[in-house]
Write a structure and sequence with these properties.
Aspartate Aminotransferase, domain 2; Aspartate Aminotransferase, domain 1; alpha/beta; 4-stranded antiparallel β-sheet; 7-stranded mixed β-sheet; 15% strand; binds pyridoxal-5'-phosphate; 2 domains; 40% helix; 387 residues
Amino acid sequence: MMKYDFDTPVARYGTDSIKWKVEEGELPMWVADMDFRTAPQIIEAIKARADHGVFGYSDVEDDWYDAYINWWDRRHGIKMDRSWLMFVTGVIPAISSAIRSVTDPGDKVLIQTPVYNVFASLISHNNRVVSESPLVYENGQYHMDLTDLEAKASDPDVKAMILCNPHNPVGKIWDRDILAEVGRICHENNVLVISDEIHCDITSPGSSYVPFASASDICRENSISVMAPTKCFNLAGLHSACISVADKTLRAKIRKGIFTDDCSEPNSFSCLAAVTAFNECGDWLDEMNAYVEQNRRRVAEFISEKLPELYLVPGNATYLLWIDISATGHKSLEVARHIRKTTGLFITEGVHYGKCGDDFLRMNIACPASVLEDGLTRLKKGIDLLS
Ligand SMILES: Cc1ncc(COP(=O)(O)O)c(C=O)c1O
């Protein structure tokens, strides 16, 4: 029996939700937020803060640092020093600011496609150039091509790499050895690693992610990590994240950047939500992960029984499923549009995450089981109508 309720659908239509800005009757399973209410402890803390009624400027207090330090120590086996941590209003504002601080216009930034589409857009919006090291898709699984990564990193124009750890959209936790090797390659080629760890705590029961900075001394010294409670506790609208930088000189540069870019000030709820999540809501998170795992298994079963032309890439992180549609003979844009038009199911076309994603669809399964069933029925109908 679960203590928390993930089964009851929450009406989000008409609530200013980006994900739910759809036609009535459509079912959005795209943008990466959850259709679950966050942990009740967080809701109560926010209500109590709201009751105070004064929403003046807020500061980052000791409890915020302690919450991050203790959570990462307890859950992820890394001892972060308080001095490493800086509040930021979001993971993307932080990465974007870091790119401006550590690279110059015209420099190249490495990414491993298919990957969260905003990486490529933030690089080009900042007048930097994307250098792609595609992941290898082999025997139905993804892995990094370290030979290719080393070749790309050795280009003297490549100054930074954005690592997605765990990886969206392929749903993968990277092993410690692989991360250490990425760290070695980047260090030897003077490439700074920016590790996006926003999906850190959405992992299958029994598995956990490896913080990049914990993989080796080199990884720790030649990186910045960006973490947040927002993806894992469904708080994206509260704008609350954290940059961790162990190296002092690098940290000073990053700190100056986030101040200049005005992304270092919390709102009245952002620290409170993070502190409550990390200090009080571990059991909620564990149940949420168990629920998502149940959904993942259900999709795997459904696809293998009823949709033999699809293949679910096995994953152990994120609530985003990466589905191979190559056997349908159609590309992702066409299939996603067709499914939406014929069934109202809105899932993301894989080409969004890089050209190498064009044979895939991404489906967000952080929703009640009954909603998932509706999604699967629509998916089957859409695929059946394709032929
Ligand atoms: C890998 C990754 N990084 C960052 C973000 C967004 O971060 P934020 O909302 O804190 O800017 C997302 C959202 O989907 C994501 O998947």
